[in-house]
Amino acid sequence: MLLLPLWCFSNVARAQPQRVFDIVAYGAVPDNSTVNTRAIQSAIDAASAAGGGLVRVPPGGAFVTATLALRDHVFLLLPRGATLRGSALLADYVNVSGGNWGAWDVLHTEGARDTGVLGDGGVLQGPMWQMISGYDEANSQFVPLRWSGQYGCVGECRPRLVFFSDCEDVVVRGVQLRDSADWTQLYRRTINVSLEDLVVWGSQEWPNNDGVDFESCTGVLMRNVSSFTGDDGVVLASGNCNDMIAPWPEPWGSYTPTRDVLIENCTISSYSSAIKYEAIFQAWHGDVYNVTVRDVLIHDSARGIGFQQRTGGGAFFDAVFERVTVQRTKGIRGPNWWGAGEALWLTTLPEEGPKTTANHSLGGLRNISFVDCVLEGEQGAVVLSRGQGNASAAGPAALTSLLFSNVSLVIGVYGNYTRPGVHDLRPVSTGPSPLEPSAEPQANCTGFWFEHADSVRVVGGSVAFVGAPPQPFWQPGATCWAATMDSAVDVSGLACAPPLA
After folding, report:
1. Is cis: bond before 476, omega within 30 of 0?
2. At 423, which CATH number?
3. CA–CA separation, 77 and 175 (whole Å)
4. In a domain, 2, yes or no
5. Which pLDDT tens digit goes with each residue over 209-268?
6. Please, what is the angle between helix 37-49 and helix 90-97, to 10°?
7. How far apart are CA 254 and CA 238, in angstroms?
């Protein structure tokens, strides 16, 4: 098991400031319509001038605001019954940030130390419900209003709920984060992040409302978090994975790694991947390593645990997933949702396109263990590597040193919509369309699928097929495992139960 250095948890025990600055005393009005940005920011600035404190949102009606920026030693306090709600109007964010559309967030903090959000059940709410323009039945999605083209903004341009960049010692604890119009939380280039005792909720029919994204963070603790969103639940990345904005101004190929991560005692559900390592779109990414995920329940997601490496020289390595239970992964109707019901999905292959022409190799995935896990889904475990730039094949270094110890795979049908036996490898152009998961048809369903994988051990595991599946690819040729393309796999410890006739 990986051990994190003690400094990772130093911010959890730190005494929080006691002086309280009530936002009502600075002119905030809880009528669910007055935009209180200036009043609340005045309370934050007063606390900062006093050397720190708690900026309290009192219980009662909802206080509406646009972009707020926390300061050193200042914490936003949301007691039970308090609601701070983000405005749904573009003008309210422009009035604060001017042309900086990258700051169109409800809480946007850069360069602060010893700060965050505290509470005992209060709500920080986004404007998702006020930004619906329709419903796309074919893709099982609400259609959001978009602010594209405004003030140089490209892409979807909806306000995120919580954003911390280049900060240190950030604590978000004891609150509800609900209805974000875009990503619920983003922590970028931040040292020591503690997320504890949180409820994260967003409609599962709303696109791009990730539960939390960690980009180039050092020292992450995520504990006792319940997350229910449409897009990915937890994302670990090094570098920027958003192809709609310019890459970071860091030297090419030197992105700060994401490292020393502990995720435990969490429950996650997502219409995408519940937990994901991501390196896509931008041409370079750094490393992600020293990650421990334990005692986590994942349920009703399009994917359980997903590794999506497509670009950049960074690697994902030295990780343990222990006592993780994945229940009922299932394909979601419509091609806009990525995932075909894979309980576990480890993939490293180069993405094609203009943003990836500078890549010659990927860092690969190595030294990853899955211990005492139960993985239940419409597909099993996909462990796959493909050609790396100038090389004709991925080779043994791209996907290596994997351990599956006492891992039980259970294959069944768990949704109203199931896809055929495919490997959804997006984003990559390997078939009729890079947006369709139809490029990798399988004749039969496979518990473990190994492709270009080296030094893989399966110890004390099992594969079982349950129920009466309607898809012909399940039977009679469904198999417990398959290894192709020179994979080096030891499955001597794998117990196989035949599929039902």
Report:
1. yes
2. 2.160.20.10
3. 9
4. no
5. 999 999 999 999 999 999 999 999 999 999 887 766 666 777 766 789 999 999 999 999
6. 30
7. 10
